[in-house]
Amino acid sequence: MARVSSAGLKRVGIALGWVVLFVAIGIGGTIGMAELVPGWGGPSWFVARTGSYEVIGFGLATWIVGRLLNKYSWDRMGWHRTAWPQLGRGVLLGALMAALAIGLAVLLDGARVRMTGDWNVWPRVALPLIVGLIFAALGEELGFRGYPLRRLGDTLGVLPAMLLLAILFGLLHAKNPNATVFSTMNVALAAIWLSLAFFSSGGMPLAWGAHFGWNACLAILFDAPVSGYVFQAPVVEYTPGAHAWVDGGAFGPEGGIVATIALLAGSIFLLTRQNAFSHPPSAVGEQVVAA
What CA–CA distance (Å, rounded) separates 146 from 113? Predict the structure, then answer.
């Protein structure tokens, strides 16, 4: 029994070592790109600029650690050949869930959404923001789903790996502007929702699309804060209601119970959708179906 326990601990240690190497390469690549190509596009392209650096850094880490060193196929890391139509479905799912959160904020807490009519500046502001949110969503999916979730899932099991990375994802956002304990828990719940998307037949395209759809709907369609950050999108203006625990206040809907409801609804949808896990990347994926 002791030998089995030691072997298990060794496997966990090796897996964590690989993930640490992955993170080191990802962060190093991100910082390196920022040093090599600083400031392109000016202030309006800041989100796109930083997001593209993350995609390059963690994309490089995925290729080096996941593909070359660990010999994981792209399919095992979530990039299923038949899953690309799921990218658009993910965008729709994330947008509908964000719209649900906003609708609940209006109904339950008196939050307001009003049109400002300044359409003339919309393309100049919205285009770089859309590109930036696309890159930002992919960068975070590469960093927290993709290779790390697959590698830890193979060693710890799917549910422990999901919970571990969800906690880390939540803590990473704990220092965002106006963050609270509630917002940190909701961000962790969002990571679980995205992990379910990753382990589904939609794989990384579904998770990436859902992540982008959620952020883009909040930021661009409603001008609501996203994880504490305000992007000042034109045409529409969002004002939170009186109770931050309901609609998240200055942190945005992700800081309130409206996001909890929307994220739980999205997770239940993924778990109960017919044939959602018809193409699990490995036997590990079957644990999610069984759960």
Answer: 36
Residue 114 and residue 237 in contact, taking contact as beta carbons nearer than 8 Å: yes
Residue 105 identity: A
Token pair 């609708």 in the structure block, residue = 103
Give SS3 for 115: strand
Q: Which domain holds residue 167?
A: 2-290
Helix/strand/coil (H/E/C) assignment for every residue in 270-281: HHHCCCCCCCCC
- This prediction has a pTM of 0.91
Beta-bridge partner residues of 115: 236
Token pair in block for residue 182 = 């509630």
Alpha-carbon separation of residue 106 from 126, 143, 173 (angstroms): 24, 34, 25
**What pLDDT digit, counting tens, does each position of 55-84 carry?**
999 999 999 999 999 999 999 999 998 888
Distance of CA 165 to the CA centre of its chain: 11
